[in-house]
Amino acid sequence: MKPAILSVVLSLCYLFTGCSTVGNLFSSRSDTNIKGVKLSEARGGTPAGLKEIERKIKLTLFKKSLNSESALGRLRIIKIVSNDPYPKYRLFDIRKGDPYYLLGLRNADVLVAANDWVVFDGAKFRTFVWLLQKEKRGSIEIHRAGKLIRFLYTFEDN
What we know:
This protein is an alpha+beta fold and 158 residues long. The protein has a single domain, classed as PDZ domain (Pdz3 Domain, Roll). Helix content is 28%, strand content 27%. The chain is built from six helices and seven strands. Strands 1, 2, 3, 4, 5, 6 and 7 form a seven-stranded mixed sheet that branches. Strand 6 and strand 7 form a beta hairpin. It starts with a helix and ends with a strand.
């Protein structure tokens, strides 16, 4: 979906249903009636070895990266088949200047959660990233080279 169309659809959602811009995005699986899963609740706390990285991102720079030609759509999200109870997705085609790159994501990272919600539908991750421009804070948890990393974002006006 083109960014302009996506923006209109999401704005209508916000205006007419009162939904939070990113709060309910991962709150249920698209293929079942299963309610969303908060990763912190499923784990029962913070896992040992989790590295938290705080990133302050200028909102104007982030918005500019969102509007660059095909930046959001270029991301390839590949579901990983495993015995884990929750799905995970490997991310590819991240390039410098993309919103994903500004968020600290790199090629071959494994997406675990967004704003503490388990991602049951990898395609919704693009929408999550698009919606971050309307938020002051956000988070993404990944596995990179065997390490668990949680990025904590603060979006700053100029």
